[in-house]
UniProtKB/TrEMBL annotation:
Pfam family, one: DUF2155
InterPro entries listed in its UniProt record: DUF2155
Protein keywords: Signal
Species the sequence originates in: Ruegeria faecimaris
Name of protein: DUF2155 domain-containing protein
Length: 122
């Protein structure tokens, strides 16, 4: 129940109408940044999958996008923790067009959502 309330709040904050229908994509494209050396990497994750992005482990719960606009604003549920660690650094929804709205707070690394992977594979 709390998860649905959070989704509605995120949609309203990102400018998407609360009654707009959304679809879940099978995965998401994320971008990682190492702030020390300026290196970036793009990572494709499937729902339920986790991968290492620099020194962080990132797990994707779900990626959603407006049903009538697949290239529109994506939002993904991410869980992020230090590689080999157990304490979560981030656990929540991140919005592609407003990553600072709910951002990862890490001194060296940054991770944000680029887009959802849509079923048509675009």
């Amino acid at each position: 129940m709390k998860r649905y309330a959070l989704i509605a709040a995120i949609l309203a904050a990102s400018g998407v109408a609360a009654q707009q229908k959304v679809q879940s994509g099978p995965g998401a494209m994320l971008r990682g940044l190492d702030k020390v050396n300026g290196q970036t990497v793009d990572v494709e994750l499937q729902n339920g999958q986790s991968k290492t992005v620099f020194g962080l482990d990132v797990a994707l719960g779900d990626c959603r996008y407006p049903a009538d606009n697949p290239t529109g604003d994506a939002f993904a549920y991410l869980t992020i923790w230090e590689q080999g660690g157990t304490d979560q650094l981030f656990d929540g929804w991140m919005i592609a067009t407003s990553p600072a709205l709910n951002a990862l707070d890490h001194s060296r690394y940054d991770v944000w959502v680029i887009r959802c992977i849509t079923p048509s594979g675009d």
